[in-house]
Design brief:
binds cobalamin, globular, TIM Barrel, 14 strands, alpha/beta, 2 domains
Length: 602
């Protein structure tokens, strides 16, 4: 058994030494600790008698640090202790630079990491933490694993069966130029893989695009505000980030879930890489690719490494591949394509670039998302088939609530999407949004507290179907202000509330997301990650139980979901239901989208 001598070279502060002793004893070492106020001479004396393999010293107070520590090392040299014993230093007063300059064999800064200490004692190359949080979830998790999608509510199941049968029958022989482009894109990718010429295919693709996109392919003209990324810009990122990431420091404290996601989409793929790397370093599990709204409103997608001056990063295969290249192997990647005219092609490109998750929501995309309901129903269902074919789960964000729709209507829409996906062999993930929505504000439904409503919105899913749950997108929307502390706090409270309800994943905002006057800043991103980590530390593995008020809200939502689905089933026309506002009316604040109207064939 190796002997480790622990000494606080500090007049009073020895808590770290006591902590180290316990952990080293538990790890099977013979740890001997000395009392506070120990002098360098006493440490060396003790070493001569105990003959430890390693001495670990702690210093907290910030004065006379160099003086006391160099005295210890000088004595260790002079007495011969240094020849047989390695000496490590840690504690609040120590920096990496100071430790190295003084000549310690090991220097430990920041929070105690036992894997580093044990690697030092065993004189081996630092490894990742073998137990504890660093190692958790280093394998890419499948959010849908273990869920059966069994419906507990047979009435809802039966209504969904009626709605989805009608919808799939309606869509059967229909197609759109969005679908045709997705098919051509698939063929183009195949040709490229096999090194075949694809000029004819490309011409066909171009003929199905809007004039602005056609001009890009024909005359290399770029849309307004868009430019090519320079090779030197690309190389600089490669130089910076082509190194292995040292460790994964999860946000979670005790639990294995939820996973935490945030969006990127600064407009510039290079900035995106920076954001992703910072987020990974601060413990994010997954990221979303957000594209610009104009990207979704034009027929056809561009190609190449492109950046532009607006929000959202242009969706091209090259941009996606570039961004993905720098992600850690365990970072989950969602390429969203839930709302525009390029929805099917987005799934094709996302798949080609290595996406782990898609985002498809027809009711949201064809109302708040702006796309015509007929068009998005045809494109969306084709996209669900692609998700099934690729084996990529898709999530269904309930962000229509932000327009004023009550949760039960939004949830009815999500359930229809789920049932459509399941019928087509895909794996859906519903995303009830935890927010202070206009519906709640106007009707005073969250005047007393923000807990009852939010937990009811999560708990109701457990009564309906065995499914993963992923509150998003992001949580806490409409509670955030431009005050970064307030914003990070609200996000962390919402995220942790969701965690106490055993959800599978949570999407969190950066603290300036709601009020950003330009691209989201990296600092603001760290705010929330930091706040969430501490909030999870604070609550550990405690769970929320529903108050009587929450129980009755949950039951009411459940009942009204059934009512809404029953009205839609009786209408016997899913698309008409969206046009007519059955899943969210104009009175609620939802209008049927108009982009791509009249473009469905068949
Ligand atoms: C507890 C405490 C005390 C206790 C100490 C009790 C004890 N037996 O240790 C008491 C109340 C006695 C005390 C007294 C004083 N304290 Co005091 N104290 C603290 C306090 C609140 C917590 C320190 C602590 O125990 N942390 C818990 C341990 C487990 O963690 P840690 O020390 O941060 O170490 C971690 C890592 O650094 C690492 N680590 C540490 N050492 C090592 C070593 C190795 C080898 C490794 C691998 C890792 C490692 O592991 C730990 C866990 O992650 C801090 C403020 C704070 N919040 O940190 C002030 C603080 C350290 N104290 C401070 C001061 C100034 C004093 C006094 C001088 C105040 C005074 N004017 O009287 C007196 C000391 C008087 C004297 N006689 O000299 C200052 C130091 C400022 C500075 N930069 O020098 C601090 C920062 C508070 C402040 N901001 O004023 N203090």
């Amino acid at each position: 058994m190796k002997t480790i001598l622990l000494a606080p070279l500090d007049p009073v502060h020895d808590n770290a030494i006591k902590l180290l002793k316990r952990k080293l004893d538990e790890a099977g070492y013979n740890a001997i600790s000395m009392p506070p106020g120990t002098t360098p001479e006493e440490v060396i004396q003790k070493s001569l008698t105990e003959k430890p393999e390693v001495i670990l010293v702690s210093r907290t107070l910030g004065y006379k640090v160099a003086e006391i520590l160099s005295q210890l090392l000088d004595l260790a040299e002079a007495s011969g202790v240094r020849d047989t014993t390695r000496i490590g230093i840690g504690g609040m007063a120590i920096t990496k630079e100071a430790g190295a300059e003084l000549g310690f064999d090991g220097c430990f800064v920041g929070e105690l990491k036992m894997n580093e200490v044990i690697d030092f004692i065993e004189n081996r190359v630092p490894s990742v933490e073998l137990t504890g949080k660093s190692n958790q979830l280093r394998i890419k998790p499948d959010i849908t694993a273990g869920y059966t999608y069994k419906f507990y509510d047979p009435i809802i199941e039966e209504l969904l069966e009626r709605i989805t049968s009608q919808t799939l029958a309606w869509v059967k022989d229909k197609t759109t130029i969005g679908i045709e482009r997705a098919k051509i894109r698939t063929e183009l990718l195949e040709c490229e893989k096999e090194g075949n010429s694809h000029n004819q295919l490309l011409d066909k693709y171009i003929s199905l695009c809007d004039p602005e996109i056609q001009n890009f392919y024909k005359y290399h003209t770029l849309p307004d505000g868009v430019r090519w990324l320079g090779q030197s810009e690309i190389n600089r990122v490669s130089d910076l980030f082509n190194v292995p990431h040292p460790d994964f420091n999860s946000l979670r404290h005790t639990e294995k879930k939820p996973l935490f996601f945030s969006q990127y989409g600064t407009g510039c793929p290079i900035m995106d890489v920076y954001h992703i790397k910072v987020s990974e370093a601060w413990g994010i599990d997954g990221v979303f690719h957000f594209d610009p709204s104009w990207n979704a409103q034009k027929e056809g997608l561009l190609e190449g490494h492109l950046t532009h001056e607006y929000d959202g990063t242009i969706l091209t295969l090259e941009n996606l591949q570039f961004i993905h290249h720098f992600m850690e192997p365990y970072t989950l990647w969602n390429v969203r394509g839930h709302r525009g005219l390029n929805t099917p092609e987005t799934q094709v490109l996302g798949h080609a670039a290595g996406a782990d998750l898609f985002k498809i929501n027809i009711p949201y995309g064809s109302t708040a998302g702006g796309t015509d309901p007929q068009r998005l129903t045809v494109d969306g269902i084709y996209s669900l088939m692609l998700a099934a074919q690729y084996g990529i789960p898709f999530d269904i964000p309930g962000n229509d609530e932000l327009s004023g729709v009550p949760p039960y209507k939004t949830f009815a829409g999500i359930l229809i999407m789920m049932a459509l996906g399941l019928k087509l062999g895909a794996r859906p993930i519903p995303k009830p949004l935890l927010c202070y929505s206009p519906y709640m504000t106007i009707n005073g439904l969250m005047d007393d507290n923000m807990i009852d409503m939010n937990v009811a919105k999560l708990a109701v899913w457990r009564d309906i179907v065995d499914t993963p749950i992923w509150p998003g997108e992001p949580v806490g929307f409409m509670t955030h202000t431009s005050d970064r502390v307030q914003s990070a706090l609200q996000t962390s409270l919402h995220a942790s509330l969701a965690a106490t309800m055993d959800v599978d994943a949570v999407t969190i905002a950066s603290s300036d997301e709601a009020y950003s006057k330009g691209p989201i800043s990296v600092q603001a991103r760290v705010d929330t990650l930091r706040a969430v980590r501490d909030q999870l530390r604070f609550q550990g593995s405690i769970k929320t139980t529903l108050s009587p008020a929450a129980e009755s809200i949950k039951d009411e939502i459940h009942e009204k979901i059934t009512e809404t689905l029953s009205i839609i089933a009786d209408r016997d026309d899913f698309v008409a239901s969206i046009y007519e506002g059955l899943i969210g009316s104009q009175e609620d604040g939802l209008y049927p989208g108009r982009i791509g109207a009249g473009t469905v064939n068949g």
